[in-house]
Amino acid sequence: MLVFGPIFGVYMEKIGLKRAFVIGVFLNGISPVLFGLLDFVDSYTPYLILSLLLRGFEGFGAILFLCSMFMMSTTVFHGRVAMSFAILQTVFLVGNSIGPLLGSLLNSSFGYAAPYILFGILQMITSVLAAWTLPKDTLNTSSSISNSLRGYLEILKIPSVAIFIYACGVSGTGPEFLTAILEPNLRQFSLGKVEVGLVFCLVAFLQLVSPLWGYLIDILKKPHLFALIGSIVMVTAVVMVGPFPGINPDYGILVAGLVTFGLAQGILSVSSITNLRLSIMQNGIKESMISISFVSMGYLTATSVGATIGPLMAGVLYQEFGFQNATLFLIVGNLILGFLVLGIIFCRTSKSIARSAEYSDTSHNDAEKNLLFNRSSRMSYS
Question: Across the chain, what does the average pLDDT equal?
Answer without folding.
Answer: 82
